[in-house]
Amino acid sequence: MTQALTEVLRLEAIRHLEERWEGMEKWVNERMRVVEMQLMHMERQFWKRSHSMVLRGPPSTPLSSVETSSVSSRSSIAPYSDTPSIESLGPLDCSDTPSTPDSLSTSCLYSIVEDKESPLPEPPASQGAETHMAAADLPRIWAPPPSPPAALPDHVNIEVKLRALIGSDRPELSAELQRFLKHGSPALRSSLLEHMQALLIPLVQDRFGHFLVMRALRLEPSLGAHLRGFSSTMIRHPYGAQVVLCMLGQETGLHDQVLTDLLACHLRDVLLLPEALPVWRKVFSTPWEDPSLLRRLRDAVSDALQGQWVATVNSEDGSALCQSLVEHHWLRDHDSGVQELLDHFLDIACHQWGVWVIQHMLEHGTPIMRAAIAHHLLQTTSIVSLSSYGSKAIQSALHWCGAPFQQQYAERLCQLSGPIRASRTSGTVPRPLLIDLAAAQHGLPIITEVCAYPLTQLLTTAHPMRRSLMIRLVERHASFLQGNRSGARVCLLCDRARAMARS
Fold first, then answer.
1. Among the four residues 172, 343, 370, 494, which has the most C-beta atoms within 10 Å?
2. Rounded CA Rg of the chain
3. Distance CA 198, CA 66 (A)
4. What is the residue-averaged pLDDT of the chain?
5. Using H for helix, E for strand and C for coil, what is the string for 81-114?
6. Can you spell out the DSSP letters for 455-470?
C-alpha cells in the first residue's frame, strides 16, 4: 500500500513538473518573439537615421574626380559626430562608387534602407550607370522570395505508403500522397493510381484516405469505374458517403453509375441512414438528363416507403428526407405517399418532426396540395391551433394560402366551439376558440405582430361585421385575458385595431 501511494505521489510530482516546464517554455517563446520584433524595429530605425544624416552633405566635387579614391575611415567623417559609422553597416561592395566623405554617393544605400514606411527619392540622373550596377549588387535586408517546392523523389514505394495510411492517424501521409498526385511526374502519378485500385474500398472508409480518393477522382475520373457496385456499401459509412458525393458532382458519367448502383440495392435499408442523407439530398437536387432513370428512382423510393410514410415523417432523419423530397418536387399531388400523409394529417401536424414536412408542403407544394392542407387545417382548427407544434402549421398556412384561408380561419376562431367554462350567473357558457388561443403562449405568434399575418391583418382584412365581432369577444373576456401576458397583449392589439378602424 505504501509503495502504491509513493508511486502515485511520484507521478503527481512528475505531472506538476511537466506542466511547469511547458509553462516556462511557452513564456520563453513569447519573450523571444517580443525581443525579435524589437530588434527588427531598432534595425529599421537605425537605417532610417543613417540615410537622413548622410543626405545632409551634398557632394562638392565632380563624380569623375574621385573615382579612384578609397573608402575613408571613421575619422574622415568626424564632422558628422551624431551619425552612425558607415563601417558598422557591414562589408558592402562599393568599389565602383565614390568614397570620399564630400562626394559619398547615397545610391549604394537605396537598396539597403528601402522601406515601405519611408519612401526614398530616386538617385540623381547625373550619376553614371556604374553606380546603378553597384547598387544592384548590394545585399538586401528584406527576406528573399520563397524558394520553389522541393523536387519530388523519382522512386517512391507507393504501396508501402498506401498501406501505412490505412487505419493510421497520419494526415501528413495523406497530404504527401495528394502532393504526388498534384505535382508528381506522370510516371509517379500513374504508379500511385495503379496501386490505389487494389485498396480503394479501405481507402474510401479511412479517415484521411478518403481525401486522397476524392482528389484522385477529380484528377482521373476513370478511377471511379473500379468503384462500380460499391455505392450502396460506401453510402453506409460517413467517409464513404463523402466519396459518393464527390462522384455525384462529376460530369463524366459517374453520377449515372452511382444512381444505377443505388437502384440495385435495397433502398429501405439506406434511405433513412444519417450518413446517407447528404447523398440523397444531392440525388434529389441534381437535374438528371435521363428521364427513365429518374422515373425508376422515384418509383423505387415510393415503393420503399409504401405504408411507412407516417412513421418516416415523424422521425428526425425521415423528416429531413421527406422535406428534401417535397422541396425538389419529387412528391406529386396524386402520389400514394401524399394521400397517406393527408389521411393521417392530425398525427403529423401536431408532431415535433412531422410539422416540418407540412410546412414544406405549404411552401413548395402545388396549389392543389396547399388547398388540401388548408382544408384539413380548417377541419381540425380547434386541435391544431392549440397544439404547440400545430400552431406552426397554422402560421405557414396564413402565409401561403392567401386571403380565403385567412377569412375562413377568422370565422372558425369566432365560433363558440371552445371548452365549456362555469359561469357565476348561468350554468355553463361556451368559450370561443379565439379566447383560448389568445391565452396560450404558443398561440401568441398567430395573433400578435410576430406572425407574418397577425390578428391585425385578420382584423383589417376581415369583413367589418367579423372585425367588430372579434373585438367584442376579446373585450367580453378581457378580465380572463388580462390574467396572463399573452392575453394582455391581445387586448392591447384589439384596442389598436379598433382605433385604426375608426380612423
1. 494
2. 40
3. 77
4. 77
5. CCCCCHHHHCCCCCCCCCCCCCCCCCHHHHHHHC
6. HHHHHHHS-HHHHHHH
Name the domain boundary from 136, 162, 177: 136
Domain end marker among 136, 171, 187: 136
Instruction: Tell me the backbone φ, ψ of residue 465, rounded to 5 degrees.
Output: -70, -40
Note the helical H segments in 98-185.
110-113, 129-136, 158-165, 171-183
CA-closest candidate to residue 57, choices 126, 115, 128, 105: 105
Query: What is the H or E stretch that residue 400 is in?
Result: helix 390-400
Cell numbers placing 221: 475520373
Dist CA 396 CA 390 (whole Å): 10
Q: Is the pLDDT of residue 226 over 80?
A: yes
Provide the 3-class DSSP secondary structure of residue 261. Answer: helix
Does any domain span residue 308? no
Residue with cell 501528413: 172
Q: CA geometry: angle at 212 spanning 209 and 215, to 5°?
A: 150
End-to-end CA distance of the chain, in Å?
91
Q: Residues 124-153: pLDDT tens digits?
A: 444 444 444 444 444 455 555 555 555 555
Residue 9 Ramachandran class (φ > 0 left, ψ -120 to 50 alpha, else beta):
alpha
**How far from 119 is each of 52, 110, 116, 122, 313, CA to CA, in Å?**
12, 10, 6, 9, 69
Could you tell me the three cell numbers for 485? 401576458
Domains: count for the chain: 2
Is 88 within a domain?
yes
Q: Which domain holds residue 429?
A: 401-503
In a domain, 195, yes or no: no
SS3 422: strand
* Enclosing H/E stretch for 428: strand 428-430
408: nearest Cα among 376, 436, 369: 376
Residue 97's Cβ-side half-sphere holds a number of Cα atoms within 13 Å equal to 25
Bridge-partner residues for 420, per DSSP? Answer: 430
Contacts of 223 (CB under 8 A, 6+ apart): 193, 196, 197, 200, 213, 216, 217
pLDDT digits (tens, 9 = 90+) for 442-490: 777 776 533 434 455 555 556 677 777 777 887 787 777 777 877 788 7
Phi, psi of 428 (to 5 degrees): -120, 145
